[in-house]
Amino acid sequence: MNYDAFFKKIVICLPTYNEAANLPQITEAILRIIPSAVILVIDDNSPDGTGAVAEKMRLENPQISVLHRVRKEGLGRAYLEGFRTVLKNMPEVERIVQMDADFSHPPERLPEMIRRSESADLVIGSRYVKGGGTENWSLFRQLISRFGSLYARLWLGLPVRDLTGGFKVWRRDLLEKILSCPIGSGGYGFQAETTFFAFRSGARIAEVPILFTDRNVGKSKMTAGIAWEAFWRLPLIRVREVKIEK
Questions:
Q1: What is the distance between the alpha carbons of residues 246 and 186, in angstroms, rounded to a whole number?
Q2: 163-179 tens-digit pLDDT
Q3: Per the domain annotation, does 246 fall within a domain?
Q4: Alpha carbon 158 to chain centroid distance?
Q5: Where are the alpha helices (DSSP H) in 117-171?
Q6: CB 86 within 8 A of CB 13
Q7: Distance between CA atoms of residues 19 and 16, nearest Å
Q8: What are the C-alpha distances in Å from 3 to residues 8, 116, 118, 186?
Q9: Which CATH number is 217's domain given?
């Protein structure tokens, strides 16, 4: 397959909140690895001026677009608006990538994940398959993460090891189906919920090992409220009857 042409039909969705220090470096790293990619920065009106940094980058590079949101409403809401913007305005795009802007998700794994999407509808960058892992995490955070993924797997009944991971490559046709589902999670439960709907639709799901590295700059967006939302919403997702096109 001609992967040079394949990579030209890819957009990277980067949600940001107070990522002014990381944004120039992560976009440079992505474009160094996939020079033809389009990057959509989805900024939630960051107090640190991330939106202004993104606008300056947009003016300097036509491959960078910026979606300014009025306020912070959670990671899930930012991704949903970004996805809808891509599907509406970029008909040539065949693969949509979602990833963090803080280097927790290694850009160097993008080519392998995108190649795997040739035979899979959803590819997840996974910490919990052979070859994957985490770096610079405390024991407490490792336990919380593994418990969260196991809790989600048990409730949702999915054969996916890393259900709370947010490094994903979507095929366009699958993402269009998922956006028709009643996605209710605003925080990190969004990751498990969208994967659940993908599985229920009959999608082919693959996991590619990644090394998840804790951020060096800025603060984690995880809060007790976000964790609690995921905890109570997951059982609701499973018992709710949702018809999904296959």
A1: 25
A2: 888 999 999 999 999 99
A3: no
A4: 18
A5: 139-156
A6: yes
A7: 6
A8: 9, 12, 10, 34
A9: 3.90.550.10
